[in-house]
Amino acid sequence: MVKICCIGAGYVGGPTMAVIALKCPDIEVVVVDISSPRIAGWNSDRLPIYEPGLDDVVKQCRGRNLSFSTEVHRHVGDADIVFVSVNTPTKTCGLGAGKAADLTYWESAARMIADVSVSDKIVVEKSTVPVKTAEAIEKILAHNGRGFSYQILSNPEFLAEGTAIRDLLSPDRVLIGGRRDTAAGSAAVDLLAGVYARWVPQDRIITTNLWSAELSKLAANAFLAQRISSVNAVSALCEATGADIAEVAHSVGKDARIGSRFLSASVGFGGSCFQKDILNLVYICECYGLPEVASYWREVIRINDYQKSRFVNRVVSSMFNTVAGKKVAVLGFAFKKDTGDTRETPAIDVCKGLLGDKAVVSIYDPQVTGEQVARDLAMNKFDWDHPRHLQPLEQLSATDLEKQVAVAADAYEAAKDAHAVCILTEWDEFRGLDYRRMFQGMQKPAFVFDGRNVVEVAKLREIGFVVYSIGKPLDDWLKDMPAVA
């Protein structure tokens, strides 16, 4: 039927192309990337990303109609549809620094497509991009395309890490934006829609104009992050008044107009999209002369930052206003369960806050390596979304953190001789830990600071722990302690 090539073998490109290959066995699907180690990982028995169900899908298709390659130019050149799933990091310098999306990699990809093409192409935006990016890409291809025709489509992803394969196999919707006002644009939209229609019901395939599709992705992430910040803001009030955020969220979520999803209080949201996309939205609003709208969305980020700092303050103030020299076990470093992704994880800010007060931190996460922890704690803000060769290379042993940070093999090792345990990722295994055994190996008083509301508070208090759980009625011990260190 067609050949599909995806530029970028990351969290979006790899799983998406694997599922397309699975459901469309007659389509040749190639994922290309300039990173040899990443491509080697996709061709190995240990994939470079962890996602439940991904291994099985890749193994079914790899060698049949799915391949991974570093031969970028060759495969892009002869593809009919080119998905572009490259980084769009937040700018760290220049105009719009700290807010605007850096489209350097997108522009490079567009110029490369024009240089190597030997036929007409459909170019699909799979990365999250600012509104009107497609217009810039059209201009680049039109001026460098050597007579070939290009149609630009926006096909944003709406995957949740940890359930990405399930989301791809049974999506809420597939959104395709294109120039439906032209015959060629309409045909391109229909062709891509036909690929998804192999397994997605027609009523879940939505087609719009280009700008609506580009903005829908930013808006969707902003709305989801807003819900998390809203419930986290209420969690602070719950602690101050003695209300229980779980009961409040349950009651609120029963309203059909609101719904129950994304109403779980936590130490804060993370991941590669929420903060970056909201900052991008803020910048776009400012550029279009909408300062009030920009300010509204900026508050979502501020509440998220407040929730993380509030958690650190609660830890320090509860432990006699200092954690200097005290061992603190951190359970969970990924930004959510069922993924090894640490991009913008709240654990980074919490760990840095504890380290700033001279704590000794012992970290355990079932899917995050010590190397990744070291890189994350060495990075400056927004470094993570730039190519790996531009990220800091420092290891913990080469920094002042050497004596303050350790990575443990399991939760019990992390908690041995610790004064406190901080739960920062909602891994299922943390619900079933033997907390009595953990308590016996800890310094006393022993604290548990639950940033994900995964423990049974009453049971832990019976064991002897001083327990703080986000948005829950405070332990008697904590009622006498200031909320801010």
From TrEMBL:
> Does Oxidoreductase count among this protein's keywords?
yes
Query: Which pathway, metabolic or otherwise, does it act in?
Result: Nucleotide-sugar biosynthesis; UDP-alpha-D-glucuronate biosynthesis; UDP-alpha-D-glucuronate from UDP-alpha-D-glucose: step 1/1
Keyword set for this entry? NAD, Oxidoreductase
Record keyword Ion transport present: no
A single GO BP annotation from the record? UDP-glucuronate biosynthetic process
**Residues that bind NAD(+), according to the entry?**
8-13, 33, 38, 86-90, 127-128, 161, 273-276, 343
Catalysis: reaction(s): UDP-alpha-D-glucose + 2 NAD(+) + H2O = UDP-alpha-D-glucuronate + 2 NADH + 3 H(+)
What positions does the domain UDP-glucose/GDP-mannose dehydrogenase C-terminal occupy? 329-457
Enzyme Commission designation: 1.1.1.22
Domain of life here?
Answer: Eukaryota
Which residues carry out catalysis? C273
Pfam (any one): UDPG_MGDP_dh_C
InterPro entries per the UniProt record, alphabetical? 6-PGluconate_DH-like_C_sf, NAD(P)-bd_dom_sf, UDP-Glc/GDP-Man, UDP-Glc/GDP-Man_DH_C, UDP-Glc/GDP-Man_DH_C_sf, UDP-Glc/GDP-Man_DH_dimer, UDP-Glc/GDP-Man_DH_N, UDPglc_DH_euk
Q: Which GO terms describe its molecular function?
A: UDP-glucose 6-dehydrogenase activity
Q: What class of enzyme is it?
A: oxidoreductase
The text of the family note is: Belongs to the UDP-glucose/GDP-mannose dehydrogenase family.
* Function description: Involved in the biosynthesis of UDP-glucuronic acid (UDP-GlcA), providing nucleotide sugars for cell-wall polymers.
Q: What is the protein name given in its UniProt record?
A: UDP-glucose 6-dehydrogenase
What taxonomic lineage is listed for the species of origin?
Answer: Eukaryota, Viridiplantae, Streptophyta, Embryophyta, Tracheophyta
